[in-house]
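Provenance

Sequences were taken from public entries as deposited. Structures were produced by running a predictor on each sequence independently, with no templates supplied. The record for soluble epoxide hydrolase from Pyrus ussuriensis x Pyrus communis is shown for reference.
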Amino acid sequence: MESEGIEHRTVQVNGINMHVAEKGHGPLILFIHGFPDLWYSWRHQILALSALGYRTVAPDLRGYGDTDAPASPSSYTCLHVVGDLVALLDAIAPDQEQVFVVAHDWGSIIAWYLCLFRPDRVKALVSLSVAFSPRNPQRKIIKSLQAVYGDDYYICRFQEPGVIEAEFAQMGTTRILKEFLTYRNPGPLFLPKGKGFGRPTDAPIVLPSWLSEDEVNYYATKFEKTGFTGGINYYRNLDLNWELTTAWTGAQVKVPVKFIVGDQDLVYNSPGAKDFIHKGGFKKYAPLLEQVVVMEGVAHFLQQEKPDEINTHIHDFIKKFH
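Predicted structure for soluble epoxide hydrolase:
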């Protein structure tokens, strides 16, 4: 990717060194990746949107890739990560009061928090895969997930430090990444102990047309170095985030939003998600929600699976705001 004019640098933000990939000039688009991802999941968007006159900026979030990974699990709350991103914008674009944000998966969760905490910094948001999730003051998140899905649900399995990492290490980094990146089951992801992703770890995984062995290898070289703990620590803070955001119970997101999801995405197919998105709940909490796009036959990693369509969707939306 370096050969295509994408520049890499390290920026000191919020007490950590953050790796950033960027290209282009103009209004800034901040790309926020999810799990188990890197700046690299935005490679197609960086090239396309920088060519359309934008400055595209895609960091590795804390715990990922070439960005520092603090040791303490509690250093991965929404306040830490949003703090990193606000500090990054202060450092690299002090002249731009507001920026465009494009986010996916955990990046979308972080982006929703960014819009809640600092709407003054966001011109418009394109959220992929994960809609806004209003805080339920009645019950914590992990207990809710256990009640619905049981203990083998992947988020529940991620809670105990070290346990899932040991299982992933046995399966191998490349294998884990291929399992996640090629996951197309619209149902919930279960990771029963010792059973991995429900198939023998030596069963071949055929990569889809949009993902090459070289691309998987790029991910693998980074995750070999860092392990998965940094990314998994985001899940370990779901309940702490719930506690820290009590003051935002019932708060609305006052930022213009476009939401895009694949109809095969496990998040879109989780209980209640479609009703919330399509029957007024989402719009109630994000009153400036302008558009919901459901892409047929597309799964979770939509910006890599359908880059051209996603690039067009992003551009069509954000060009209205400058």
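The first strand starts at residue 7 and ends at 13.
The mean pLDDT is 96.
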